[in-house]
Amino acid sequence: MPKISIIYATCRPDYPMVDMPEMHQFTPFLESLKKQTFTDFEVVFTDFLLSKRKIDFSPYPFKIKHIDPSGFSWAWKKGLWALQDGFNYGLIHAEGEILLWFGDCCEIPNSDALQLWWDWYKKGYFAMALALYYTGNSQTRLPNGTVVRDSRWNFVDETANGIWYAKGQQYSGYASSSLHSMIEINGYDSNFDGSSALSDTEAGERLEQLGYKFVCDKRLTVIERAHIGIAIASIAPDGTRPSSNLDKDKWTELWGMPDQDFRSNYSLLMLNKEKHRTRANDYALTEEELKWIIEHGEKWGIIAPQKGTYRHKLLMDWFNNPPLFDIYQLRQENKK
User: Fold this and answer.
1) Residue 260: phi, psi to the nearest 5?
2) Which of 64, 122, 126, 159 is buried deepest, with most CB atoms within 10 A?
3) pTM for the full model?
4) Residue 336's pLDDT is what?
5) Which domains does the chain have, with CATH numbers?
């Protein structure tokens, strides 16, 4: 059994990265893993477009699982962002003692990174890598020349030794957690799918409720590269834009508005905190809770869907068909 499982969730077609037109999005990531001094790991690609890709993994000396979570996901069947379902499907198939959570178009610049993740875990902390944003081979900059960077750098820079002990609300992007802890909280909350926002933060806050601790170490970084192509949230299950399989008016109504979400993830996060939920994917919202999410969502700028619209139908479909599953049970079934 490997000590580390790296779970890389993707639903992005093979659009090229900026200034790297011949480079597949998986390649920098896999090549950087070949340079790691810590070698007891596996890679689990949970790929919603697996059937559309032809990837040769034979040059890589480590174990790679390339699996398709599309049948597992309510959101993906609606043509929506489904990152949590991708991570949870990877969690069902992972064998490592600790888990690292990765996304598209990235690579690990430090050859000792996996060792650092493991060492922090052995000290009782879930380490989170700091993102370095790149366009081609240069760091991404704003028009005024300012480097675009992970907001957590601000806290790390204020420390004397480059080590910042974070809270659960800072748990995001290229984070780590133990297999035991993720089974304990029943994975990432798939109720957050349909949007990219706050799902990892919410998971971090549930982990913190159970006593788990987090750290950022300036030596632990991941490069995330700018990419060309359509937004992840606008990819349909067949790999095309939802406009190709949704009525045009529905497309405009769902995606052509400033508030693309059909509900507020921030409201859902606040509700879960208020309810002191530590487990995801084992609860159904009450009508009162749905009303609370809608009303509070308007305070955060998410306009309530009007009855009869596609967004409202989507909201009610989400409400009436919540993700209900037990990660431990699904893992046991997968082993058979």
Assistant:
1) -75, -20
2) 126
3) 0.89
4) 81
5) 4-229 (3.90.550.10), 241-320 (no CATH)
